[in-house]
Amino acid sequence: MTLPYYEGTFFNACHAEPDDVRHGSAASNHFPAGIAAHEAGMLNAEELLSKKIGLEPESIGRKRIADIVNTRMELSRIDDVNKYLQKLETDPAEFEGLIEDLTVSETWFFRDIESYNYLKKYVDEIKSQVPEKKMLKILSIPCSTGEEPYSIAITLLETGLLPEHFEIDAIDINTKAIRKAKLALYGKGAFRGEKRDYRDKYFTYLKKEFLLDPAIAGLVNFSRDNFMEPHALWKHGPYHVIFCKNLLIYLNDDARKKVFDNINNLLLPNGIVFTGHAEIMSFLQFGFSPIKHSRSFACRKAEAGEDPSSLLYGRLNPPGYLQRDEKLKKSFYKREEAKSSNINVDTAIHKIVPEVNLKKQKSDDKLSISMIRKLADGGSLDEALSMCEQFLKKHKQNKEAYYLMGLINLALNVFDKAEAFFQKTLYLDPYHYEALMHMQLLYEKKGDRTKASAMKGRIQRSKENNE
To answer: For labelling alongside 450, which of 41, 83, 210, 399 has CA 20 to 30 A away?
Structure first.
């Protein structure tokens, strides 16, 4: 499952602890003097990254950004942040090195297996619609170290398509990742999940690594590009299918809009997009509708006059939800969420729960949360859900566990429960930025402008509170 710190086809730098994300970073120990100036310089560095590559600093943690910038400064023998920023503006190689350090990749073949199962189904459906001598075109962006586009190539071959019947473009901003992808040489960590039969069929074992059949590796066209640039890839496309997983979660609002503009320009009518678990809501916000194939995380452009939110909520609302009178509406969420967790209703509504400081929790608690994240990230959603439920029986004040439950249910398309768990997260931390973002999108898709506006105001206050 792709949670907001996971996959790394774009910004999969290790996710900072929530407190680090919210409160920024202290100056490095290497800068005992001029701390205020150094921190101001770090803010300028964040602004530069936001401008150049669309990075939302909170998505990977300000502390991690500061640590990486400090390391790059030491390597460049520069002790002033603003001087280092000048170097970034004039030295493309240094800026590229910084991006490579920020975009540490972790992915594997056939991640989110249902995406590929639905791709097979989709290809079977459109085979007859693709004119003779015309190719099926697919884009993988960001492609990271190649596992995703190579998985696409294998999938297309297994549907019976010949190499001349399709074309796969794979794009990433990380030049180092592109070089690794072109080698098509992978360790055991690239092969996870239930589907393993392809490894013996398409790979050759070479000194503890596996080399992909060159005939298959040659089916993917790799290149470097920045998808946040206006009219990116204008010489490519149009595409029948775009894989754009785990990119939006790391971008600021302006960069997201540019990505969606580029997707709209590159995607053919009736084309489909495969996205990450936590990004479906963003695609709905920009006019896409979910495809009814469990765990495929596929969506398509909504047709004229179609409301994407109707597909999302039509069968998932509790019976009579929209027909409840105003008085019942006010208490509905609190009572439903209390019932869903077997918590006493009066306790859930009236008890003031103190916010938990995750840094003071026991190490085994942190390990449990980490294990749940890894399970979900690997696609074991049911197992992650069960483990998280057990964890919450003993840790009813853990806001990150409730947030995880919300994300897992969101990935399982159980949106009413996802909403309830995000609400619980906000009981424990009224300014939990990620939970507020998901709640705003959920209310917008329901057409509840009042609550969506309220969430938007809380998001703004959350940003101000953490600056």
So the answer is: 399
Q: How far is CA 218 from CA 167, 213, 234, in A?
A: 11, 9, 23
Strands 220-224 and 209-212: unpaired
pLDDT score of 116: 96
Identify the band that residue 158 occupies on the pLDDT scale cut at 50, 70 and 90. Answer: very high
| H or E, element range at 273 | strand 267-275
Helix, coil or strand: residue 358: helix
Residue among 283, 366, 372, 260 nearest 1 (CA) = 372
Residue 411: what pLDDT? 77
Question: What string of H, E and C letters represents the secondary structure of 133-165?
Answer: CCCEEEEECCCCCCHHHHHHHHHHHHCCCCHHH
Alpha helix positions (H), 26-103:
35-53, 62-75, 81-90, 92-102
Q: What are the b/e assignments for 386-396, b being 16+ CB within 10 Å?
A: ebbeebbeebb
Report the amino acid identity of residue 103. T
Contact criterion met (CB below 8 Å) for 11 and 60: yes
CA nearest neighbour of 307 among 448, 450, 437, 445: 445
- Please state whether the peptide bond connecting residue 238 to the residue before it is cis, i.e. omega within 30 degrees of 0: yes
Measure the CA dihedral 211/237/230/462, to 10°: -60
The model's pLDDT over 81-139, given as tens digits with 9 standing for 90+, comes to 999 999 999 999 999 999 999 886 778 999 999 999 999 999 988 877 665 556 899 99
Per cent of the chain over pLDDT 70 is: 74
User: Which secondary structure element, helix H or strand E, spans residue 384, and what is its range?
Assistant: helix 381-394
- Residues whose CB is less than 8 angstroms from the CB of residue 122 and which lie 6 or more positions away in sequence, other chains included: 241, 272, 298
For residues 121 and 59, what is the distance between their CA atoms, to the nearest angstrom? 34
pLDDT at position 284: 78
Q: Which residue has the tokens 């680090």?
A: 20
366-389 residue pLDDT tens: 668 888 887 877 677 888 888 998
Which residue type does 172 have? D
User: 45 exposed, middle or buried (CB, 10 Å; 0-12, 13-18, 19+)?
Assistant: buried
Going by the DSSP 8-state scheme, the letter that residue 260 receives in this structure is H
Round to whole Å and give the CA distance between 196 and 236: 32
pLDDT band for 408, please (50, 70, 90 cuts).
confident
Q: Enter the pTM of the model.
A: 0.64
The residues pairing with 55 across neighbouring beta strands, listed in sequence order, are: 251
